[in-house]
Amino acid sequence: MLGTAESAHRDHTATGCTFAGHLCRPSLDPEQHIRTNGYQSVRTGDDGKTRFYSFTEHARSSRIAILEAEIARLPKQAEILQACNILRGGITATLIQERHIAVDVAVTNYGYSGSTVACVLKYMHQNEVSTQLVYYKKAAGGMYTVFVTD
After folding, report:
1. Cα–Cα distance measured from residue 108 to residue 111, given in angstroms and rounded to the nearest whole number
2. How many CA atoms lie within 13 A of 67 on its CB side?
3. ∠ Cα 5 7 11 (to 5°)
4. pTM to 2 decimals?
């Protein structure tokens, strides 16, 4: 059973994990991430069955750089870029609605691994570049989405 995260603004500051002194690959599996860390929001889809789980991680730039490098190594396909562009539109709308700023959001990288889609989105506001990584997956237990932001 999935549990809720202890804090909606949990601050993950790790740059990865170590095992016997070796750096472990960070996971881009949103289902695994949410099952491990819990979720911050869940809702049932319009079909009355599908559960949509999400988790937002506020991370240091070093962790974001590691995850970006993982995404850069993923296979590319035009349909994945189209999916990321749809997310780009949603992020743009959210920035306008919640932060009252109108900025251009760019998809700077993307890829997929199995049924997981990953997108790197960047925007500039007041001379500062912000990054948002989004990775999501449709699985038997529902739809899992993880946002990693600086």
Report:
1. 11
2. 29
3. 105
4. 0.78
